[in-house]
Write a structure and sequence with these properties.
six-stranded mixed β-sheet; about 650 residues; homodimer; 30 strands; alpha/beta; seven-stranded mixed β-sheet
C-alpha cells in the first residue's frame, strides 16, 4: 500500500499514513485534535478542515457551505487521503503550539511479533511432527508373501531409512485394500515421536503420491470466541483462518457460569458437545475455503484456558471454582481426535496444551511457547489481558506466573456504555484542551454506540493528562462545559450527544466507569509488581514486555503507561503477539521441538496465588490511582505532567 | 482320589486306577481286551468278567444268570471299582499269554504340561503387567492446590517410588470425583511398560483400597470354539473358565467360508460383531461365576488364528484365502478394549497375539510363548493338530514354522461315522485277536454314535498292528468274521451293530475312512519332516515334542507312532499343553516378560510355505502308508510287527 505524508497546521505535525486513510484518522495518529462527535460518520459536521495543498477524495457534505468547499474546506472524517497533503485545523482562538500539542501524543501500538520459521529452522528447532513418504512396493508373490504391514515397514526402512515404526489398527484395516487399489504405490503418513529415540507411528496410508498434501489445524478455545487456523505443514503457511463465537455462550457468558452449568445434570456433556460443534464448524469452513481434503489433515492442536480445556475434554470443572481452586490436571496425554468427536480422520491425534493452575491455562502456556519467551535470555513480562489477566515473568531459565481478576472493564463490562471492540465502539479519542470538545473515532467510522476497552484507556489517560480528571479519577468540578455534568449524583463527561449516536441517548463516561477501569488496571499492575517482588526483581529489570489477547493489539502503549496499566518502559521493548494461544497452537503444529519443550516449560512455570501473597493487597491499594500512589514510579509522565500542568494552568488562567 | 490295584487274569496284567473307574476302562488302560460293542452302556452284555477277589459296585444285569452272579460274574462296563481286585476275563479258547497280550498296549497319553509360575518367578521372568498402589493423599489447601493429577503422580513418586508416569484422559475425567468421594484415599492401577525404561500408565483410579483385586482375561478365539479364563493377577490362579461356540459358525463352518462371508456387504462387520458377542458372553459368565467386578479387570489378551484375529479386529481377511496368501499384519498394536466393543472398563487394553503368516496365526505364537518352547535349549517340535496342523520347530535360538492342511479327519470330518469328541464317540478300542470282536469305549459310557479322532487313531493303529489291515490301510480279505464285510463295493469293519448303537445303524470303519486318516497323518508327518530337512535336521535331533489342541490330550502316543502321525520317540519326551493358545494368552496376562519376548519371537519365527517347498510332495507321498513307506524310520514298531506277526501267523495257522 502506498504511503503519503500529511502535514497538520498550525501544529506543524507530520505523519506518514497508508493511502485510503481518512484525514480524521491521520490526525488522530499524528496526535492532532479535531472536534468530532459522531465517530467519523460525517453527521456532526464538526471536523471541518482546510486542505491547503494536495487533494483528498470525498469530504464534501451539506454541512459545508459552497464557499467553504471552494476555499478547500472538507469534513476530515469523510476525506480519504490519495496523495501528500497539508491540512490546516481551524482553532477557536490563537493558542500557542504547546497548548495545541499537549492534548495528545501520537498513537504508539506495540510492534507485532510473528513467529519466524526461518529462525526456527536455522536454530535446528524445526522438527516436523508429521511427514509423508511415498513408496512403490513390489507386489507379493509366492516367494514373497510378507504380510502387508511387514512389506510397508520393510520398505520404509529400505528406501527411507525409517526405523522403530509402529502401525495403528485403522492403518492395518485400510492397508490391504489401498495397496491393491493403487497397484502398491502408496503414501505413508508418519507421526514423529516427540522425544527422540521413541517410535514413529504410521498413522495413515493413502493411494498414490500425496506427499505434497500435509496439513494441521490449530485452535484457540476462548471463553467468548474460538479461532482456528489451517496450516500447511510443508511451508508453515496459514492457508485459512476463521473465528466464531463459542457456542457455550448460550449457557453462560463467563467461565464461572459455564462451570455452574456444567454441574447441572447433563451440563458437562452439553458444553462439551457445543464447543466441539463450534470447532467442527470452524474446521469445515477452513477446509471448504482452502479446498483441502479432510484426510490430508494430520494433526490438531488446541489451547484454551483451564476451564475451556476441561469442558472441551469433558473433564468436570467444578473444583476450579471452589477454593482451593484445583484443576484436574496440568498435562493431558495425546488423544485421538475422533474420540473427542472432532470431524477429522481417525488417524488424527489431538494435542492439548497443558495448564498451570485453575486460572493460568493452556492459552497462556501456548503464548509462552509461541512467543519464544521460554527460549530467550531477556527477562520478559508476558501479559494477556482480558476479564482475567494472566501474567508470566521469566526467561529461558525460569518462569513465574499468576492470574488476577481484572474484571470485565477492558472488554467493556461494568462500563456504562462499555461494549466489545466491534463496529460503533469509540476506539480512539482526544479532547480539545480549550473547549473540551471530543474527537471520537469509532470502529467502522460510524456513529458511536459505546466505548471499547482500548478507547476507554485512551479516554481516561487523555482526561488525566489534560487535568480534566485527577489522580483518583474524579472530574475537575471547576471546568465550565456542558459536557461535564452531574446526573442523578454521578459526574460524567458527554462523549456524544444523542443526535450523534446510534442509540438515541447521550454516550457518557462516568466517574464509576473510571473507577472500574482504575480497579482493573490496578489489579493487573499490582499483579505484575507482586510477581516481580516474589522473584526478587523490579520493573527496571524487565527487558521486554509481550502483550497478548484481542485487546493488546489496540492498546496505545503511551496511554497504558499514563493510566498505570503498564510500567513505564521504552515502547520498543513492547511487542504484541495477538492471539498468543492460537500462535502457540500453530507453532506446536509445526515443530515437535515445541511439543517436547512444553512439558519442561509447564514443569518450570511456578504458579503464584496472588490472593495468598501478602503484599498483593498493599500493591493493589497503591495502584488504585492514576497512574499510582507513587508518581515517581512513572518519571516520564511525572515530568510531562509537571511541564504541561504549568502551561495549562497558565493558559486557563 | 483313592487308587486301587486291579489284576487281570489270565493275562496277569496289573494296573492302578482311581476309585470309581469301571472294570472295562481299567482293562482298556491295562491293555486287556474285553469284548464290548455297546461302548460301556451295559446293553450288549458281552463284557462278562469274573471278580475273583475284592468287590465291585454294580455290574449285575439281566444279561447274567443267577448262577453267574453267585459265582461272581459281573458286566465289566457297569462294575465300579471300590477296592483292590482280581478280575478274570473269560477267553474263548485256551491261548497263550503272548496272544492275549499282543492286541493292545497300555494307553500312554502325553504328560500334561502346565505353566509353572514359581519357575518364572525364580527366573526373574514374572513382571506383572498391571499393579495397584494404595494412596492416602493430603487434601488440597490454599498453600497446596496442586492439580489432582499432579498430586496423584507426586505421591506415587514419593510413597511408591514410581516414575515416568502418564495418565489417560478417562482417569483424568474420573480422578477429581473419586478423590473427593473417598476422602483422598484411592487406589491407582498402573500398567507397566512392556519395555523397561518406557512409561508406566496410570490406567484407573478407584476409591479406597482395592489392591487385592486385580484380574485379567485370556481368550482363545478358535474357529469353532472360543475359550476364556479369568485370571487373578496376584496369585496367577485361574478363577473361572468358560468355553462357547464361536457364534460365527452360523456364517460358515471353516475359515474359508468365514472369509467368503466377510467379503459380502456388511459381512465383516457382522462376523466381528458376533465373535465379540461370544467373547462378551464368556466374560460375563466368568465374572458372574467368580463374583468379580468388571472394573477390577485390568487387561485382556486374545489369541487366535490369522483369520479369527483379523475378523475379531475387523480387518478384511480376503487376501488370506487368495494366492499368495497375504495376511494384513503380523504384529498388532495394543488396542483399547472398548474400541473393539468388549464389555470391559474403558481403561482396559486388549493385547492381541501376533501372527506369522496367513496360516500360522496368533494361536500358534501363543502356544510357543505359553509352552516356554522359545526359552528352552532343547530342540522342540510343537504340533497343533486340527483341520489345519501347525508345526513349529526350534528352541531359544531359532524357530521355523509351517502349516499344512490335514483335512478334518482328526475332528471326525470325512469319516463315515466321524464325530467330534462328545458323548457317544468311540474314544478307545481294542480287538480280540482270535474272534475279531471289538472292545468299544465311548465318551460318557453310552451306546456309540460314531468315532472321534483319537478313537480313530487307536482303531487304525490296532487293526494295523494286528495285521487286520495292511500298510496301505486295506483289510485282510482272508479273515472270516461277519464284522469285516463289503457293502456297495466298500470294505468295512463293523464296530457296533445297529442294536448296540444310538443311531439304529451299524457303525463301521471303512477303507476310505482309513485312507482319509492316512492322508491326514501323512500331511502332518511330511510337514514335520520337510520342516526338519529345511533347517538341516532330522527326527533324531528332536529332544522334545509338545502337542497342542483339543485333540492332543486324547491321543495315545504309542498308537500315534504306529500309524506314523508322530515320529517314533520316547513317550517321556512328549508333553501336552492342552489349549496352547489359551495358555499363552494367560501367560501374557501374567507377565510382561512374555509380552516383551513375543515381538522378538515373532520376528525370529521363519515361515516355510510347504507348497513352495520342493521336497514336501515327495515326503507326503512316502508318508501315505502305515506307518511310512520306509518302515525303518519306525524301528521299534518294525521289531514288534516282526515278532507279533510271527506268533500271530503261528496262532492263526
Amino acid at each position: 500500500m502506498k504511503g503519503y505524508t500529511v502535514r497538520f497546521l498550525p501544529h506543524d505535525k507530520t505523519i506518514t499514513v497508508d493511502e485510503g486513510t481518512t484525514v480524521l484518522r491521520a490526525a488522530m495518529a499524528a496526535g492532532v485534535h479535531i472536534n468530532a462527535s459522531c465517530g467519523g460518520e460525517g453527521v456532526c459536521g464538526k471536523c471541518r478542515v482546510l486542505i491547503e495543498t494536495g487533494a483528498v477524495e470525498g469530504g464534501i457534505t451539506e454541512k459545508l457551505s459552497r464557499q467553504d468547499i471552494e476555499q478547500g474546506y472538507r469534513q476530515a472524517c469523510l476525506s480519504t487521503i490519495r496523495g501528500d497533503l497539508t491540512v490546516r485545523i481551524p482553532v477557536e482562538s490563537v493558542v500557542d503550539a504547546s497548548i495545541l500539542n499537549m492534548q495528545s501524543t501520537p498513537r504508539r501500538m506495540a510492534g507485532i511479533q510473528e513467529p519466524d520459521f526461518n529462525e526456527l529452522k536455522e536454530q535446528g528447532l524445526f522438527l516436523p511432527p508429521v511427514e509423508k513418504k511415498y513408496l512403490e512396493l513390489p507386489e507379493p508373490s509366492h516367494q514373497d508373501n510378507l504380510p502387508d504391514v511387514s512389506r510397508l515397514i520393510g520398505f520404509l526402512k529400505l528406501e527411507h531409512d525409517e526405523h522403530r515404526l509402529v502401525v495403528s489398527l485403522p492403518v492395518i484395516r485400510k492397508l490391504p485394500g489401498i495397496l491393491r487399489q493403487s497397484g502398491f504405490k502408496i503414501t505413508a503418513t508418519l507421526a514423529r515421536p516427540v522425544h527422540p529415540g521413541r517410535k514413529t507411528h504410521i498413522i495413515n496410508v493413502q493411494p498414490g503420491d500425496t506427499t505434497d498434501r500435509n496439513y494441521a489445524i490449530a485452535i484457540d478455545i476462548g471463553t467468548t470466541t474460538v479461532y482456528g487456523q489451517l496450516i500447511d505443514l510443508i511451508t508453515g503457511n496459514v492457508l485459512a483462518q476463521f473465528g466464531d463465537f463459542n457456542a457455550q455462550i448460550s449457557y453462560g457468558e463467563d467461565v464461572i457460569s459455564r462451570i455452574m452449568y456444567a454441574e447441572k445434570p447433563g451440563g458437562l456433556d452439553k458444553l462439551h458437545e457445543v464447543v466441539i460443534g463450534t470447532i467442527n464448524g470452524i474446521i469445515a469452513k477452513m477446509l471448504k475455503k482452502s479446498g483441502i481434503d479432510r484426510d490430508d489433515v494430520n494433526a490438531i492442536t488446541l489451547a484454551g484456558n483451564t476451564t475451556m480445556t476441561q469442558l472441551m475434554l469433558k473433564v468436570d470443572p467444578r473444583y476450579i471454582r471452589r477454593s482451593p481452586y484445583v484443576p484436574a490436571s496440568t498435562i493431558y496425554p495425546p488423544i485421538m481426535a475422533k474420540s473427542l468427536d472432532f470431524e477429522l480422520g481417525d488417524h488424527v491425534t489431538a494435542l492439548v496444551y497443558p495448564q498451570i493452575s485453575s486460572y493460568v491455562g493452556g492459552d497462556i502456556v501456548s503464548g509462552v511457547m509461541g512467543s519464544g519467551m521460554y527460549r530467550t535470555e531477556e527477562l520478559t513480562l508476558y501479559l494477556d489481558i482480558g476479564t482475567n489477566a494472566e501474567i508470566v515473568i521469566g526467561n529461558k531459565d525460569w518462569l513465574a506466573c499468576a492470574a488476577c481478576s481484572a474484571g470485565p472493564a477492558f472488554e467493556g463490562g461494568g462500563i456504562t456504555f462499555g461494549m466489545r471492540a466491534t463496529k460503533g465502539a469509540i476506539e480512539d479519542f482526544s479532547i480539545d484542551p480549550i473547549t473540551l470538545e471530543p474527537m471520537n473515532i469509532t470502529i467502522g467510522n460510524v456513529r458511536p454506540k459505546g466505548i471499547c476497552g482500548s478507547g476507554l484507556i485512551i479516554m481516561v489517560a487523555t482526561l488525566f493528562e489534560m487535568g480534566i480528571i485527577d489522580n483518583k479519577g474524579k472530574f475537575n468540578r471547576d471546568l465550565k462545559t456542558p459536557r461535564i455534568r452531574e446526573t442523578e449524583g454521578i459526574v460524567e463527561y458527554v462523549l456524544a450527544f444523542a443526535e450523534n449516536t446510534q442509540i438515541d441517548r447521550d454516550i457518557v463516561l462516568t466517574e464509576p466507569d473510571i473507577d472500574n477501569l482504575i480497579r482493573a488496571k490496578g489489579a493487573i499492575y499490582s499483579g505484575c509488581m507482586t510477581l516481580l517482588e516474589e522473584v526478587g526483581l523490579n520493573v527496571n529489570d524487565l527487558q521486554r514486555i509481550i502483550l497478548a489477547g484481542g485487546f493488546g493489539s489496540y492498546v496505545d502503549l503511551a496511554k497504558a503507561m499514563v493510566i498505570g496499566l503498564l510500567p513505564e518502559v521504552n515502547p520498543d521493548q513492547v511487542t504484541y503477539v495477538g492471539n498468543g494461544s492460537l500462535m502457540g497452537a500453530r507453532m506446536s503444529s509445526l515443530t515437535n521441538r515445541i511439543r517436547r519443550d512444553v512439558v519442561d516449560v509447564t514443569k518450570r512455570m511456578t504458579n503464584f496465588e496472588l490472593s495468598e501473597t501478602r503484599s498483593y493487597m498493599d500493591n493493589y491499594v497503591a495502584a488504585l490511582f492514576l497512574p499510582h500512589t507513587d508518581i515517581n514510579k512513572f518519571p516520564k509522565l511525572k515530568a510531562r505532567l509537571e511541564s504541561r500542568g504549568k502551561s495549562h494552568r497558565e493558559h486557563l488562567s
